[in-house]
Amino acid sequence: MVARHDLTTDPGLQAQLLQARRGTAFFARKLNELTDAQLDGDSLLPGWSRRHIAAHIGYNARAIARLIEWAATGVETPMYPSVAVRDEEIEFGATLSPIALRNLFDHSAVHLSVEWRDLPDDAWHHTVRTVQGRDVPASETVWMRSREVWVHAVDLDNGATFADIPEPVLERLLKDITGAWHTRGTDKGLQVRVTDSDLTFGDPDAAVVITGPLPAVVQWATGRGTHGVGADGTAGQVPAAPKWI
After folding, report:
1. What is the DSSP string of the chain?
2. Rg (the chain; Cα; Å)
3. Which of 224, 72, 60 shows the shortest CA–CA distance to 145?
4. Which residue ranges form the domains of the chain, and what is each CATH number?
5. Rounded distance, CA 226 to CA 159, Å?
């Protein structure tokens, strides 16, 4: 699935594209390990089956491809008409037959990879708009996709863990999450310390300090469990992380 001849010559962007494609390949492996019957099982996300996860990742690739088409042509092509339409699309996708659901993932992933491959250097700086209404350069779509495929591979609940996610992805994800908390003011009195690196985020005078290795801290920060995480100032009870999406 890795494009052979990306038009971009930016080494940093090339590295990000490789990371996103590796994440897509990792998601594909975990999805393909599941039998058709196992697709009906629960994911790690409340209310979503594994079918929902697969549908979401498939339609997400199509939506991001629309942003790349926007960057290439200058013709506005939103990710989705609305969040409600996105949610309806996922619910519909979850009802597809197993072969159709798998084809949705495969074909949409290839389509997005080709759109990225064929986007020239100057177009990567063109502004597009996310479904949340943020105006971002087209280059941001690579991180948007990388985050989705790596994290949701874990959500398939098929043996993948946050320890399988590359460290640069985990670090950027944690920075995004703690940045969102800070913007909303929900990190007051909270500090996060990563014990296997020098990463520290949050209130320097915090009463509650969350500690743990990077994979465990990111798992906690995304609301996906507290295993491997400790907390000071809470009588040993690890509090739920603030919402970040």
Report:
1. ---S--S---HHHHHHHHHHHHHHHHHHHHHHTS-TGGGGSB-SSTT-BHHHHHHHHHHHHHHHHHHHHHHHH-----S-S-HHHHHHHHHHHTTS-HHHHHHHHHHHHHHHHHHHHT--GGGGGSEEE-TTS-EEETTHHHHHHHHHHHHHHHHT-SS--GGGS-HHHHHHHHHHHHHHHHHHTTTTTEEEEETTSS-EEE-TT-SEEEEE-HHHHHHHHTTS--TT-EEESSTTPPPPPPP--
2. 19
3. 60
4. 11-158 (1.20.120.450), 169-232 (3.30.1050.20)
5. 17
**Per-residue model confidence as pLDDT tens digits over 132-154:** 899 999 999 999 999 999 999 99
- Each residue's pLDDT tens digit, 151-201: 999 999 999 999 999 999 999 999 999 999 999 988 888 999 999 888 999
Q: Could you report the per-residue pLDDT of 31-82, keeping only the tens digit for each?
A: 999 999 999 999 999 999 999 999 999 999 999 999 999 999 999 999 998 8
Contact 15, 149 (CB under 8 A): no
pLDDT at residue 1 tops 70: no
pLDDT of residue 151: 98
Give me 227's structure tokens.
Answer: 């295993």
Predicted TM-score (pTM) of this structure: 0.94
| Phi and psi angles of residue 22, each rounded to the nearest 5 degrees, phi first | -65, -40
Question: Rounded to whole angstroms, what are the CA distances from 32 to 41, 101, 156?
Answer: 14, 11, 11
